[in-house]
Amino acid sequence: MTLPQRSVLDQRLNRLNEQLLQMSSLVDVAIEKAMTALYERDTALAARVVSADQVLNDLRYATEDEALQILATQQPMAGDLRKVVAAIHIAVELERIGDHAAGIASLVERMEDEEPIESLHKLPKMAKRAKEMVQMAVEAYVTHDEKLAYSMMTKDDKIDRQYRRLFNETMMAMRDDDYIRRATFLLWVGHDLERIGDRATNIAERVIFMATGDHVEFLSNVD
Question: What's phi and psi for 112, nearest 5 deg?
């Protein structure tokens, strides 16, 4: 590859990085706002989160288009090729993480007529960990940091355990018939947060493939 060709490819790869970082930032905001809407029962904020999800959808397709154009016009090889392929998968995972945030927000709207929830159990800690996992996974992609990707994946067991405890505690609380509907909403929120952690792990697996060429699959240690 000649120097001018390398320069063009580097510019296009940097653009991919910028688009994924933009998606990551939007996802971070979406999770934060969705959880704030839940804590404060702010249906107007929840509606804005749901509406903003379309921006993430559009960015996903723009990122995929950019990646496909690189493949068609720049003919990347080896590590560059793996980086472009990884970017396509990561864009999909980030868009779906946005869907989970929008799903939490839509539940807030459905809970508008419900009695206030006295305890949110493990949800704030789960939300914080989910956000950290996404941030770490995307940073690992941008910096080609295989070790950071492995470190991030270890957090998945923790969020899985948090969800398991939430599930068990909430099922116990469901013995009170008046609490069943609200408890079900809490479980759905917890499930969305747990799935965000799973998708962050998928991103980390792609980072490791990009950096090493090896396919890895993280196996949870949670029973």
Answer: -55, -40
Give me the amino acid identity at 171.
Answer: M
Q: Is the dihedral of CA 162, 164, 169, 171 positive or negative?
A: positive
**Coil/strand/helix, residue 189:** helix
Q: Report d(CA 153, CA 204) in Å as an integer.
A: 7
- Indicate the pTM of the whole model: 0.90
Q: Which residue has the tokens 């991919």?
A: 16
Decide: 30 and 86 in contact? Cβ < 8 Å: no
Question: What's the pLDDT tens digit per position in 173-213?
Answer: 776 666 777 778 888 999 999 999 999 999 999 999 999 88
The string of DSSP codes covering 100-111 is HHHHHHHHHHHT
The whole-angstrom separation of Cα 30 and Cα 94 is 11
Cβ burial, residue 30 (10 Å; 0-12/13-18/19+): buried
75 φ/ψ sector (left φ>0, alpha ψ -120 to 50, else beta):
left
d(CA 9, CA 122): 45
- Alpha-carbon Rg for the chain in angstroms: 19
